[in-house]
């Protein structure tokens, strides 16, 4: 099971409390697979983390795991072993900007 930590506003949209645990059903554990599973399980999240048409990460959404920023990695790059094993969570973070 992969543990996913969502920001508060996405938890509200998905109507979940706490972290989400995903079983990728044999899919290769990648960021794209996590997003596919989240969007399948919580349809309200479709389009919130990546664009519908291009499947590219939305601006101001970041992905972290094992103290690494995975946001600019290829969506089909393998996840760190600790995330796959369920010992470390996969974080979806809403980035902030301002001036």
Would you mind describing this structure in some detail?
- The chain is of the alpha+beta class.
- It has one domain: Ubiquitin-like (UB roll), CATH 3.10.20.
- The protein contains 3 helices and 5 strands; from the N terminus they run E-H-E-H-E-E-H-E.
- The chain has helices at residues 8-14, 31-41, 81-85, and strands spanning 2-5, 20-22, 61-65, 68-69, 90-94.
- It has a 5-stranded mixed β-sheet with strand order 2-1-5-3-4.
- A hairpin with a 2-residue loop joins strand 3 and strand 4.
- The longest helix is centred in the middle third of the chain and has 11 residues, at 31-41.
Average pLDDT, all residues: 93
Q: What is the number of helical segments per DSSP (H or I, 4+ residues)?
A: 3
Instruction: Identify the overall geometry.
Output: globular
Number of domains: 1
């Amino acid at each position: 099971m992969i543990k996913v930590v969502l920001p508060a506003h996405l938890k509200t949209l998905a109507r979940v409390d706490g972290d989400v645990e995903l079983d990728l059903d044999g899919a290769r554990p990648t960021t794209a697979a996590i997003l596919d599973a989240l969007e399948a399980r919580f349809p309200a999240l479709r389009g919130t983390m990546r664009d519908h048409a291009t499947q590219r990460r939305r601006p101001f959404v970041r992905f972290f795991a094992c103290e690494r920023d995975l946001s600019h990695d290829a969506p089909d790059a393998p996840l760190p072993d600790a995330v796959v094993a369920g010992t470390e969570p996969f974080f979806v973070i809403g980035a902030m900007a301002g001036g």
